[in-house]
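Collaboration report, partner site 2.

Our partner group contributed sequences for two proteins of shared interest, and the home lab folded both. The records are reproduced in the order in which they were received, starting with the first partner submission.
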Amino acid sequence: MEHRRLGSSDLDVSVIALGSWLTYSGGVGREQTEACTRAAFDAGITFFDTANVYGRGAAESAWGEILGAYPRDSYTLATKVYFPMSARDRGLSRAQIHKQIDASLERLQTDHVDLYQCHRYDDDTPLEETMQALTEVVEAGKARWIGFSEWPPDRIQAALDMPGVARFVSSQPQYSALWRAPEAEVIPLCERHGISQIVWSPLAQGVLTGKYRPGTPPPAGSRATSSKMNRFIKQWLTDEMLAAVQLLQPVADGAGLTMSQLALAWVLGQPNVAAAIIGASRPEQVHENAAAAGVQLSEDVLRAIDDALDPVAIR
C-alpha cells in the first residue's frame, strides 16, 4: 500500500481510504462492516473516514467498537461536522463544534481524531467563529489537524488569510474521471497552500465499475437497487453516461486492471490527490480497490479515458 503526506501535516495516509457514508451508517449490516474493516487492514489500508451525520452517529459507533481492537497509532481516523444531528444541532458555530467533537469522540471511543473536517460551509456562522472553534479543538488535543469538504474557493482563501488560527491541511471534494469540477479552482488553490485532496466518490457512486449498462436494469444487490444507498447515484444512470463508461472496459482490459482499479488509478494520478475514499459492502471489494494503489497509467491509457469520457464528464 502506498502512503502519501497529507498536505502540510505530519500525517502519512494510505492512498486508499475506507469510507462509511452509505454503507456502515446502515446500508450494510454490522457483520459486513466488521469484515470490510478487517479486510482494509489486511490490504494495508490505514485511513478511515467517517462523519457524525452518517446514520446519525451509527457509523462512528460501529467503528468505535471495531477499531478498538487495533492500536490507536496503527491507523488514521477522520470525521466531520456540519449536517443536522437533531432539529437543533447543526452547523459550524463554536457551540456546535465543541458539542459535536465531544460526541464524536465518545462514539469513536477515542480521545482524539487525526483529522476533523467541516462537512460543508456554514453561511449562518461567521467564518472567524468557526475557525477559532476549530483552533480550540486542535489546541485541546481533540483533533490533530483540520480540513474541509466542498467549501467555495473564496471561503477557503478567507480562512487561509486569517491570522492566528489552525491551518487546513485537507480538502474533501467529489472528484472522479466523470466529475472534474474541482480542477477549475479548488485544486489549484489548495496546491498553492499545502492542502491535499481526499477524494470522495472516485468511482462515481460505483458507475465507473462498469456494472451498470445502458438500457439494462441495475443488477440485483447493487447500490442502485438499495433504497438506503441509491439516493445520489441516479444522476449518473443516464444511457449516455453509461454508454461512455462502457468504452472504458477494453481500456481497463488492455492495462490489466478492473474497471474500479482503472478509475482509482486515474484519480490517484491527478496532482494534489493524497487519497481516494472507497465504500465497500464486501471484503473482496476492499481488496480489489486496494490493488489500485501504486498503479501508474500510461499516457495512452490516460488519453483513452479522456476520449471516452470527455463528452459526458462534468467540469
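Second partner submission, folded after the first:
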Amino acid sequence: MISFLRHSIGWIMGFFHSRQDLIFENLALRQQLLALNAKRPRHRLSTVHKLFWIALRSVWSGWKQPLVLVTPRTVVAWHRASFRLYWRRLSRARRVGGRKPVSPEVQALIFRMAGENPTWGAPRIHGELLKLGFDVSEPTVSRWLRRAPRTPHPIQRWLTFLRNHREAIAGMDFFTVPTLTFGVLYCFFVIAHGRRKILRCNVTRNPSAPWIVQQMREAWPYAQAHRFLLLDHDSKFGDEVVSSAKDMGSQPLRTAVRSPWQNGVAERWVGSCRRDLLDHVIVLNERHLKRLMAEYVRYYHEDRTHLGLAKDTPERRRVASGAALQSRISSFPRLGGLHHRYTLAA
C-alpha cells in the first residue's frame, strides 16, 4: 500500500513537471537500472556511471530526486575528486611558454654574491653570472635579489674592515689581576692584529699617562708604529697618550662606549690569558705576575696555535717533518705543566 501511494504521488508530481525534467529523470532511472543489472560483485559503479552523475549534477538542479543507488554526498565527492585529478594533471603538464625557471643553484649563487658584496646591485651580479656561463636575465636577478637576506650586520662590516686592515692595526688595553698581598694589579699590553703578536706587556700598581707613553715607546723601539691604534674610553688613555701616539706616526681610534667587540683581538687575548693561566694560579705579588706574564707571552708566541691564524702561532711554528706514526713523540711542559708542547723525538 505504501509503495502504491509513493508511486501515485510521484506520477502526479511528474504530470506537472516540464518535459526537460522528465527527460532527465528518465535518463537517471535508466542509468541506475543499467547499474543494477550489471553483473559485478556488490554492484560497484563503474567510471562511466560516476561521470554520468557528475555531468547530470552540472546541468539539472533536480538530480537528487531520482537518486537511489548512492547518497548525494557520494556524487559531490566524485565531483571534487574529478576536479583534483584535472588540476593535478594540468600542473604536471609541460609548459611551453613563459620564462625559464631559475635553478636552486643559481638562486643560491645570487644570494651568496649579495651577501659577500653588500654594495653590488643587480647589474654587477648579472655580469658575474654571464661570465660564469649562466643564461639569466637582469630583471630575473633583480627579482631574486629582493628576496636575498639583508646586508650584513654592522658588526660583520666592522670585522671585514679589520680583516682588510689588520696588518696596519694594533690595539692596547688594560685588565686587572687580583693578588694575594698587593690587592689589584693592572696589566697593560699592546697587540698587533696581523699575527696576533704581543708587542709589549707589563704590570703596574698605579697606571699613569707617562707610564703608558713609555710602554708605547718600548712597544716600537726601532720600527715604525702601526698606522691605526685602537683604544677604549678609559680615563687612563688621556690627551697625553693620544698626542704621543700621533707623534709616533699612529692614528689613535677610540672604540664606541660599551663596545668591546670593536677591539675584539685584544679582548680575545685577555680571555685566552685568563683561561690558559690566570684562572689556575694564585698571584702572590707584582714580581710573580710579571714572571707569569713573561712566560705566557713566550708560550703564546711560540707554542700555542691560534684559530685566527689557521692553527698557526704568531711566530710561525714549524711543521715537523717525518712519519708521525712511526716516531716517538716527546712532550715539554709549559707554564708549570698547565700546557705542553709536542714534538717528534730525534
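Feedback sent to the partner group on the second submission included the following. The mean pLDDT is 81. The longest strand covers residues 169-178.
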